[in-house]
Amino acid sequence: MQKPIAITAAAVIALGIGAGTYVAFFAQPTQCSGSTIAGGKAAIGGPFELVDHTGQTVTDTDVITGPTLVYFGFTYCPDVCPLDTARNAEAIDILDGMGHDVKPVFISIDPDRDTPPVLADFVEVLHPKMVGLTGTPDQVKAASKAYKTYYRKNGEGEDYLMDHSTFSYLMGPEGLIEFFRRDVPAQELADTTACFINQS
Question: What pLDDT, in 10s, does the model give residues 154-173?
Fold first, then answer.
């Protein structure tokens, strides 16, 4: 199976352009971190029905049962997704050390290639707690729309890439708690998450 290792500069540029569309949702700092969401936190997140890496159909209420770190990407991503999900996995381990149980979730925006067995291999490498989610193109599109994420196929044939936004979302059963850009280090992500958990 192809394993993600490196991304092209063109893809990185495209990701930055796509992600920039969504920065407008985020504005001023809160007590725990450096951002709030214009229009309210209810603007991000919502119901979804997807298939997990074990092949089971699940909904958002099955997956988001407590603090959950959600990321949209694809397993064939050569660099950005592995780096972001590895950062998230490191933050989860830091949080474990603080006594906080946070679940990492990876939602694929490439359902044609990211079948449950492919996702199973991917999440096994990244973190034992990680849940991989895929689905039909319509299911993935609905989940992406709920989270205001961007993705677009870039290229033809089997080796195409996916341009996509790169935010990680800290969710709870009641909805969005916080979001993180990809330049936030694992320790800062963990500290911010712990702050929100301690305030709850």
Answer: 888 788 998 888 899 999 99
> What confidence score (pLDDT) does residue 28 get?
38
What's the CA angle centered on 107, arms 102 and 109, to 5 degrees?
Answer: 160
Cα-Cα-Cα-Cα dihedral sign, residues 180, 186, 187, 190:
positive
Check if the beta carbon of residue 96 is closer than 8 Å to that of residue 198. Answer: no
Is residue 35 within 8 A of residue 180, CB to CB? The reply is: no
pLDDT at 38 over 60: no
**pLDDT score recorded for residue 194:** 97
Handedness of CA 173, 176, 177, 183 (dihedral sign): positive
Residues with Cβ within 8 Å of 114's Cβ and at least 6 positions away in sequence, in order, are 74, 75, 76, 108, 122, 132, 134
Please name each of the domains of the chain with its CATH number.
9-199 (3.40.30.10)
